[in-house]
Predict the structure.
Amino acid sequence: MDKLIVYMQYPFVRYALIVGILIALCSSLLGVTLVLKRFSFIGDGLSHVAFGAMAIAAVFQLTNKMMIILPVTILSAVLLLRTGQNAKIKGDAAIAMISVGALAFGYLIMNIFSTSSNLTGDVCSTLFGSTSILTLTSGEVWVCTILSIVVVLLFVLFYNRIFAVTFDEDFSRSAGTKADAYNLMIAIIIAVIIVLAMNLVGSLLISALVIFPALSSMRLFKSFKSVTICSAILSVVCAFAGIVISILAGTPVGSTIVAADVLVFAICHVLGKIRGV
Amino acid sequence: MAFITVTDLSLGYDTQVVACDLNFSVSKGDYLCIVGENGSGKTTLMKTLLHLKEPISGKIETGDGLKENEIGYLPQQTIVQKDFPASVREIVLSGCQGRCGMRPFYNREEKELAKENMERMGITHLAGCCYRELSGGQQQRVLLARALCATRKILLLDEPVAGLDPVVTAQMYELIEGLNKDGITIIMISHDISSAAKYASHILHIGNRLFFGTKEEYLNSDIGRIFIERWKGGEING
């Protein structure tokens, strides 16, 4: 406990906690919708796209990598979610294709145009997030905070529509709701969250942040509202616990958070079974 | 002027025509059953009527004070809904989404409407229950209550009794008949020609041969008699 208080005096620890909790909150809000729409793997796919974009940005030695990463990821998200139902290549196959393709190209580009001596280390830290959350600048924290507030506001404002469109797209359309516009909005928001979350857990573990809280709370609750609220709380608690533990025990941040998420899922599953009997 | 007038309508996917030269109209208080073999385009017609799909050619006009988003739709269940965590109240309330316009939340009036329609369908006691844990008949009542929140005029039902047992099926038909007597126009896709013959006022038969007319005309027509014979013979799955 004393150790924690000492650590809290360092700004980078406080930044890590703020950003970690905000990202966990945002990703869990949309997680419920994505899991229900059978898009659990979109986090994985998009994070690989973001990885590929980051490789390109690194090759061109751009100072502001977001300039490339964000638009490319948003574009991929829109393509994946929009074509959804009617595409010739169905949702899961399309995600797998884009995901693996982007990962391969990203690594290829990094290899060919390598500027650093420790390539494997670079790739590993981009994929697994290693320590980047502990090296955040106050500017990045502000960007993250503002974007998170926008995401939460949009979610709350359009909560009813998001529910309706997720539950029954055809009915929503017949009632005059612009389902395509809402799908587009969901796609853009998820892309923004994934780009933000890359700093925290790295590309590979983003899926976990999106799906675990949603799946855990779906074991316990039965209405959309309670599932959403519960998954937000679980996600925030896991992120907080994960960061604190990783600081105290010196473990990697991303993996620790995901481990906490897995543990909570196991607990919720057991609780759900007990209540179900 | 009828609620819905369809002239020379062709429908299908991309350029593949499923059904063509459809002409029919639905007036206030009608009970129209759409019958036909599997794959004859019944569901496609329904989606085209709802403007979820563009027709290949022809016109669909709405009139008599009916607006395009004032149609209550009861779709067939999707796989997503089978494990969807949502309470009955949330689902019924989502039927009011067309009334909100740009307003993000439901107001008191809409919540009241949802409550009324739950009472009307006899599912008030289930309001807090989880949709996926209900029986098939209860789920259909929930979706019907939702459709009623979207309209006071016309309901489009896509095989409302699919997968229900005979007792629940009979209750469902009575429920729908009651709504029709209360002045709500019904358009229903059905496999079940005997119930169509019992409850409907008009029949639209689509397939290789087309027929549109009142139930009596249909039962006395060649196409109707052949279809009913084949149905009784078990060639068409009910």
About this structure: Chain B has two domains: 1-70+157-190+198-227, 86-150. The radius of gyration of chain B is 18 Å. Strands of chain B lie at 4-13, 16-26, 31-35, 57-62, 71-74, 154-158, 185-189, 202-205, 211-214.
